[in-house]
Amino acid sequence: MPISRSALVRGSVATGLGITASAAHAMPRAGIKAIAFDAFPIFDPRPVFAVAEELFPGKGAELSNAWRTRQFEYTWLRSMSHHYADFWKVTEDALVFAAKTMQVELTSEKRARLMQGYLELKPWPEVVSALQAFKATGLRMAFLSNFTPAMLEAGIKNGALEGMFEYVLSTDRVKTYKPDPRAYQMGLDAFRLKREEILFVAYAGWDAAGAKWFGYPTFWVNRLRLPAEQLDVVPDAMGSDLNDLVKYLHT
What we know:
Layout: H1 5-17, H2 21-25, E1 34-37, E2 43-44, H3 46-55, H4 60-81, H5 87-102, H6 108-116, E3 122-123, H7 127-136, E4 140-145, H8 149-158, E5 167-170, H9 181-191, E6 198-202, H10 205-214, E7 218-221, E8 237-239, H11 242-249
Parallel strand pairs: 1-4, 1-6, 4-5, 6-7, 7-8
Antiparallel strand pairs: 2-3
């Protein structure tokens, strides 16, 4: 009997991920019908921070850490105070604050170049093959991210990921940010599935905690190998990249 093209694709994907062909054919973990991804398990932010080091030699890492911390603090402050601004503005405001804190000169050209980095993000190395493995077993997929729609669409285009995601859900739609339950609710409204049927895949420990509080089964892609947040809740599973997620879903 001839082997179908789809079977060949599943087999090549499995080989590339270091899993057996039978695992690639296997049904996903019991009960899981869809995956909702944060942006950063998919998109690699490191080039943005490399630009920071290029523009501010010897200070790029410190600037990036201050920028990233204030970026998420602003999302939480704006959510709690009901003074919403989209993630692009939050990101730019956080950059300006971080530069002022460090007393480095952030010219308009340097600011534009750093911000442009968020529109040039590409997938982590294993992402495409992992997404193909999920799609081969019929899992539905979506982004559920604080990124603006334009930021998400740019990343999808950069990574040639068109057609992979059934939904591209930005929290801009509900004018709040994760871990607000209204943000996670978008996954239920889009997929029209039960909470326990949607696996949320987080990059940050706080996002994993927020999704778990909401009621989603949760997988933490802990690329930075950080300890779990002390929030009286833990993700269902954790791995260092999407290869670990493939193995988790097919065992």
